[in-house]
Amino acid sequence: MSSAGRGSMLAQPLQRPPAGRIAALFGLAVLGALVGVAGALVQAAWFPGGLLLALAGAAGLFLGGARALGSRSGAAAPAFGWVVAVILLTASRPEGDFLFGAGGGSYLFLLGGMALAVICATIGLGRQPDTDGARLGK
Question: Could you tell me where the DSSP H helices lie in the chain?
């Protein structure tokens, strides 16, 4: 996305992303929901190792999405799916059934996953200018 003589990139009108990018973001959101459900089941099954495995899987998906799409939205889409799935799983049903217990591992999974989502979306690749003219030493 070069602004070749048209002024700043911030001054350009917003354009709709291509259909392939929208499909990739939707697929990453669905994959994020699946990783959230799988992590919720694994973290309680094998406490120390399962928790680390669930958080490592979530971090890998968030960072992998950012690298695959080359933008922060690649990390934000699976993070959105993960958060929605995990929040829906924390709600108890009228029958009294619930998936998450009140243990420390559940809270570490919830808060650790949200922190990983923010970290991976923050360090994801941002937009960079296409030209090398921005550096003075070159």
Answer: 19-45, 47-69, 73-90, 104-123
- The fraction of the chain above a pLDDT of 90, given in percent, is 32
Q: How far is CA 52 from the centre of its chain?
A: 17
Phi, psi of 125 (to 5 degrees): -70, 125
Determine the Cα–Cα distance for residues 60 and 57; give it in Å rounded to an integer. Answer: 5
Three-state secondary-structure class, residue 1: coil
For residue 111, pLDDT beyond 70: yes
The two three-digit tokens of residue 96, written as one number? 């009294």
Nearest to 75 by CA among 25, 33, 115: 25
Helix 73-90 and helix 47-69, axial crossing angle in degrees, nearest 10: 150
This prediction's pTM: 0.77
- Of the candidates 32, 21, 27, the one whose C-alpha atom is nearest the C-alpha of residue 79 is 32
73 within 8 A of 17, measured Cβ to Cβ: no
Best CA proximity match to 82, nearest among 117, 119, 120, 51: 117
